[in-house]
Amino acid sequence: MRRRWPYPRLLARISRIRLAAKHLAGLRALRRGGYRERGNTTAAGILATLVFLLISAGLVDLYNVQAARDFAYQAASDAALRGVSKGRDWGALYSGGQLALDKSVAEREARSGLSAALAARGITAYTADVRVLPDPGGGTVPGFPPVPWASQKGSSAWTATEPSVGVYVEIPVNVTFFGWVDGSGSLILHAFAAAGVAGRP
Amino acid sequence: MPGCLFNRRQAGQATVEAVFFILFFALLFFGSVELGRGLALKHSLDVGVYRAARYLSYTPSDVATATAMVRSEVQNNVLGGAYAPGVRVAVAMPSQSFQSAFTVRAEVDYTPVIPMLITSRRTIYAEHSQLIEKYP
């Protein structure tokens, strides 16, 4: 006669014993005054602290990038103003009666103003592109600034209706949080500003 | 055994532990807020000095209005303008002749207020250099 396999019944008995032991342990813990909770909040706190540190690092980075961005736009703006101010072509004004720019002087002055402003902040590794529209009617420079968001207008063609100087600058900004994310440790900021010169009617 | 050192009731344990972390979180939180305030102050100084420099490039002799422009910008700063009266404005203008360079600098003392932390006073400044455009 074939005998039945005894193990399923044995396993069922063992699991019943385990359940009973667990129940007894729970009763003992309750009698002592509850389960032990010491250290629970510490563990949760350490995790929350890590999360909060990441958020704080992100905030510091955002503040840092925002401050650098303001500086970059204002440095570009000051440089463009310097370019149009110093680069006026007085000969063209006296001979033709119209305001125009001396291209080489305007570009040189804009570049020197930009490098002085960046050097004052300790930035030496930067990329700059200065374009001049010297004619009285201005003009268009396609593909400038080279990134559409640098001009804050979403376009990548610079158009002016008067003699103008456009200054595009890229500066690196050291970051903490984003450095942890992508391992680079710095972001590149793009800024563009333009200034024009016009006669008062 | 009930009542012995390691078997006492642990109700409130989590609260005590949470208090330690709340102290730490408060430092981080208020530090971030104060950093934001400092940045807003710096930004408003920057904008104010830029506007003042543009104004002075056409009206070189009116330093009082330029100073008021900087203070007004700080006063209207989104995170509080309490620092406006303490803004110091200096204009370095060697000459008022056409196309001569000048510099406007504004600075203000800023002390971050962070609970449980003694913070040192810092001077926030902004500076812009431009050219006189008034002709002749």
Describe this protein's structure.
In chain A, 52% of the residues lie in helices and 18% in strands. Chain A is an alpha+beta fold. Chain A has one domain. In chain A, the strands form two sheets. Chain A has a three-stranded antiparallel sheet, with helices on one face. In chain A, helix 2 (40-86) packs antiparallel against helix 4. The radius of gyration of chain A is 35 Å and the shape is rod-shaped. The model of chain A has no long low-confidence stretch (mean pLDDT 83). In chain B, helix 1 runs antiparallel to helix 2. In chain B, 43% of the residues lie in helices and 18% in strands. With 136 residues, chain B is an alpha+beta fold. The longest helix of chain B has 46 residues, at 13-58. Chain B has helices at residues 13-58, 63-75, and strands at 88-92, 101-110, 122-131. Chain B has one domain. The A-B interface holds A 31-34, 36-42, 45, 48-49, 52-53, 56, 59-60, 63, 66-67, 70-71, 74, 77-78, 81-82, 85-86, 113, 116-117, 120 and B 2, 7-11, 13-14, 17-18, 20-21, 24-25, 28, 31-32, 35-36, 39, 42-43, 46, 50, 99, 127-131, 133.
List its traits.
heterodimer, A: alpha+beta, 3-stranded antiparallel β-sheet, 18% strand, rod-shaped, B: 136 residues, alpha+beta, 2 helices, 43% helix
The low-confidence parts of chain B are none
Radius of gyration of chain A: 35 Å
Strand arrangement in the largest pleated sheet of chain B: 1-2-3
Total separate domains of chain B: 1
How many β-strand stretches of chain B? 3
Q: What strand order characterises the main sheet of chain A?
A: 1-4-5
What is the helix content of chain A?
Answer: 40-55%
| Rg of chain B (CA only) | 25 Å
- The proportion of residues in beta strands of chain B is 15-25%
What is the helix content of chain B? 40-55%
Count of domains of chain A: 1
Give the CA-CA distance, first to last residue of chain A. 120 Å
Sheet with the most strands, sense and barrel status of chain A: 3 strands, antiparallel
Please give the largest β-sheet of chain B.
3 strands, antiparallel
